[in-house]
Structure formats: structure tokens, C-alpha cells
Amino acid sequence: MQSFELTDMALDTIASFASLGRVKLGEMPDLIAKMHEHPSDAARFYMGLFQLFTITGNNDFAQSMQARALALNTIYRVEGSSQPSIRLLAFMVAGTITDNTPLDYLIENSDIQLDVVYLVPGEPLPDLLPEHDVAIIAFGESDKDLSSLEMMKAIVDDWPRPILNRPQRVLFCARDKLYALIRDIPDLLIMPTLRVDRASLENITVANATISAVLGGGTYPITVRPLVSHGGKGLSKIENVMELQNYLANAPESEFFVSFFSEYRSVDGYYRKVRIALIDGVPYVCHLAIGEHWIVHYQTANMADSIEKREEEARFMREFDTDFARRHQVALSTLAERLGLDYVVIDCAETIAGELLIFEIDNRGWIHATDDINVFGYKQAVMNKAFAAFRAMLVKAMHAC
Fold first, then answer.
1. Coil, strand, or helix at residue 123?
2. What value does the mean pLDDT take over residues 241-249?
3. pTM for the whole thing?
4. Structural domains in the chain, sorted by start
5. Contact between residue 355 and residue 188 where contact means Cβ atoms under 8 Å apart
6. Given pLDDT bands bounded at 50, 70 and 90, which one contains residue 42?
7. Which helix (H) or strand (E) holds 151?
8. Angle at 326 between CA 230 and CA 270, to 5 degrees
């Protein structure tokens, strides 16, 4: 068993994604020039380029810069409070911004110091790690990170500080495992989900049998998406075998999640998706996206262009605790108990019949307060409530040991 020493460390400081996200595109060259002022600090320079080019969408170059940074150093401190009251250590993995919990958005402008340790496949953790008050597993259950989860599973029970989002619980966020875990919760609806390889779907006979098994003898429509899929990328609703074949002809992946499609359109013709953060088992509303398409994302729902949508979201947020959360109190509390995760994000909706329809649950979910305050002024207090709950959870963990 590997042993670790915790000590106060002078760490390479990197910017937060939250602050970089507010930088205008025209200001990027000045930021890059500023990084060049300290070329000897190669690890921080490469990590800065990773962050900048992630923000601008050049993921391939960003990943190459991250690899260079991690070859030099795997421990970083995110810019923040100079006089922290809470020291949070996050275990992360190499990858895109969606591979890890975006913690810097949760702790922005707080008294929480965030240090990050990146796990590198095939390599042990450093023997010397930053002193901290609380640690958190901040990466997910994707196939590429399973070995890192297994490594953490072997050491968390003997960790010298409280540790949140234990790796064995993170595994339940996988779409097929999640269905098996929560499918029988009263007044909660989650569609049967199966992990299927390409060969099975390309064989029409096997595909029909597979789909029938998923749907319990049901029929189309279904949804198909690659195993690693975020923001609706690669997600499609399939109405028949021909559409399935066309989908596969344009999808390079070798494995997919297949699920039944549940119609959740409201009586006014709009689709509504709610994002909730479960923090220490308590639900906090983070947004209500209202759109015309069944794939509803906040960025594509044109919320900023519709005062009617924003007024509805503001009202929904004001009344969340006494309305939506109260109606689904039993389902949400049972869900939180079964998951056993300290921080996790739920994307869900409400069916016409009044059930809580679960789309996705992910410990890497993004909640933030970066929307334009002049347009979304009502969101600041709501998000600050969630951020305060996150801080309170850390304090509770600190005092529990």
C-alpha cells in the first residue's frame, strides 16, 4: 500500500476556467503573451495554453498542451483566495473540460483554496501531496478513467482526510448502471438503457432483439448515443431500422447506449429540462431550459432572446423549494440516498403524468453563475445558495472527522 505525506506546498498557480470564460476573444493574444513572460515555468505555461485553447474550442491542440504540462507536473493550485479558510484537494484526470467536475465555478470568489492532483494512467500518485482539509474525487466513470477509479478505491478508506464522492459511488453514474439502481423509485421515471456494440446494432435481427430487450418488448422510437457523449453530441432519436442504419453509417464509434424515448413535451409544445445539483443530499435548482427541440440545452434554447422564457425560469427558481422540489421530495431524497454521492448534478424533466423523468446524473455536471447579470439577474442569488451549500458541505466534512 502506497503511503503519502501531506505538507504545505508552493504550487504552480493556474487560472480558473470560470475567469477565463469571461475573457473576450480579442484579449486572448495578450494572455498568451503574458504567459511567455515566464518561459522557465514550462508546466504552468503549457497548462495555461490547455485552458485557453479549451475555451476557444481547439480541443486537439489543448490536449497536446495538457499532456506536456502533466509530463512536467501533476499538481496545481487554481487561482483564488489568498487567505483561505478551507483547503480542498481535487483528484482529476487528463482530458477535456467535461472529464472533471468544474469545481472552480463552485468556489469562485470564496474562501476555498483549490489544489488539483492529476492522475496519470499507469503511474502512482506522488508520495508528497498538498495538505488539505477535504478531498474530492472529481472525475467520472468513463471507460478511459476506470483504472484511475480503481486506484482511488484502493486508497480512499485509509485517506488521512475526509474524502467526498467516493469512487465506488461514482460508478453508478454510468447510464446503464444508473437505470438498474433507481428504476424502481416511486414517481420516478428513467428509461431502460443498454450498452450495445456496433456489430449487434448493424445486424438487423440482433438489433431488433436487442431493442426489444431494452424496451421490454416495446417498439421504436429509441435514442442512440456514443458511450462518451456530452451536450447531446451524437445523440439521435431513431424511429425505425432504416434510420438506425443511417445513423450507424455516419457514426464512427464502436459502442453505444441504446434507450427508449419518452415524450415529455409540455401541453404548450415546449420541452423543459431542469438542472438540479444534489449537494449533501439536498436539491438546488440551477437552471430551467425551455426549447422547441426534444434535445434541450440551455445554450441552444435561446433563453437570452425570450423574456417570456426568462420570466418562467425566474418564477420556477423562486418557487422551486415549495413547488417542484416538494412535489418530488420522496423521489429526490430516495435518489440521493441510493446514489450516496456528496455532489452530483441531475438533468431531468416532469412528465405530463407528473413523474420525475431522469435524463442523466453526473458528478462532473456544470453549474455556474457566469450568465450575463444584465439579462439573467435573477440567477445570482439562486446560484449563490447552491455555492453556499457546497461550502457548508465541506465544513461539515471537516468537522465530521
1. coil
2. 91
3. 0.93
4. 5-172 (no CATH), 192-260 (3.30.1490.20), 271-400 (3.30.470)
5. yes
6. confident
7. helix 146-153
8. 50
More confident residue, 94 or 52: 94
Average pLDDT over residues 366-380: 95
User: How far, in Å, CA of 200 to CA of 179, rounded?
Assistant: 21
Q: 89-116 pLDDT, tens per residue?
A: 999 999 998 999 999 999 999 999 999 9
- Which pLDDT does position 12 carry in this prediction? 76
> Which three cell numbers mark 381?
442569488
Q: For strand 163-164 and strand 86-93, is the pairing parallel, antiparallel, or unpaired? A: unpaired
pLDDT at 396 over 70: yes
Helix (H) or strand (E) holding 169: helix 167-170
Residue of higher predicted confidence among 49 and 133: 133
- 368 with 360: CB under 8 angstroms? no
Distances (CA, A) of 12 to 47, 75, 126, 247, 344: 10, 8, 15, 45, 28
Give me the residue label for grid cell 451524437.
234
The 8-class DSSP code of residue 125 comes to P
**List of residues 6+ apart from 330 with CB closer than 8 A:** 186, 187
Side by side, the strands of the sheet bearing 271-279 are 188-190, 356-362, 343-350, 271-279, 282-291
Residue 198 and residue 189: Cα distance in Å, rounded?
27
Give the cell for residue 192.
431502460
* Residue listed under C-alpha cell 454521492: 341
